[in-house]
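Q: Could you write out the predicted structure for this multi-component system? I'm mainly interested in how the pieces pack against one another.
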Amino acid sequence: MPRKPEILKVTPVADSRLFHVEALDLRFSNGEERQFERLATRGHGAVMVVALDEDNNVQLIREYAAGLHDYILTLPKGLIDPGETALEAANRELQEEVGFGARELVLLKNISAAPNYMGHSINVILARDLYPSVLPGDEPEPLERVTWAFDDIEQLVTRDDFAEGRAIAGLFLARLYLQQNPG
Amino acid sequence: MPRKPEILKVTPVADSRLFHVEALDLRFSNGEERQFERLATRGHGAVMVVALDEDNNVQLIREYAAGLHDYILTLPKGLIDPGETALEAANRELQEEVGFGARELVLLKNISAAPNYMGHSINVILARDLYPSVLPGDEPEPLERVTWAFDDIEQLVTRDDFAEGRAIAGLFLARLYLQQNPG
């Protein structure tokens, strides 16, 4: 693996309420110089939850996704609040978006969305031993809740409305964990 | 599923060479109004390639990812050029980044990265029947090529340096396709 490129300069180039674009002037170890743009990462990270109920159904939500201007089917997810651990955030989001708390929470993996130009990553968390518990969320409209048999995720991942790469990864990572940690 | 929110207004709010942020003023079907920000989508889409050689190894690259300021292990990927189909782009990227062309290319699924605030999506393409062929790329330094036994992707997806959600999804989608379309 080559030595990391040297960052010669970081320049803020565009700013909005949510997005902060910066230009990176880089010198690679072979002497080549390039300028790359990336979204600066702020905040405390994010969580995505694979929550399995006692009938082995995974809990999904259908929500409006502004990037696509369409409704999508995906896993519950959200930002980690200041002072929260990832597992605490997962349990809170689950209560806000799906109406369950979880007595068992396991961090499966921290995955990235588009690492070439974003530092954002999300903690994929497996939640089991669920109990009914509702916390108020900040959604503009109630989320539709959908359950799906976890044994049938092959059908789910071929649906056009279930196409978020991180959610597909999350389901397969959960299956892999459960295969490797049975019982 | 509720009716899609009405877009009341789209306002450009920040611009850089690569990123175009817009604000969406939305009215949800329940009357609730919100402003969301998203990255505007331009270009012709993108491709990510799961290329399997005759020994059933998947072709990986190790490249610098500016979002993380680190080297990552991932699948070959890139933007679709104007006038190219997704399969043509996959075959070109494979020749640029890995040094192989493919006689067999199958589109597995179009997946999104962060659909709540980005419209970007990537076509996951399975490539087989490879032959040596090199096209010049535009990388600042030569990419390191890594091959990995496709039967051992469980070990790969647990590595810290293989954490791009779309690449994890791509591997599992390819395995699912090959299980459903044997021989």
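A: Regarding packing and overall arrangement: The mean pLDDT of chain A is 96.
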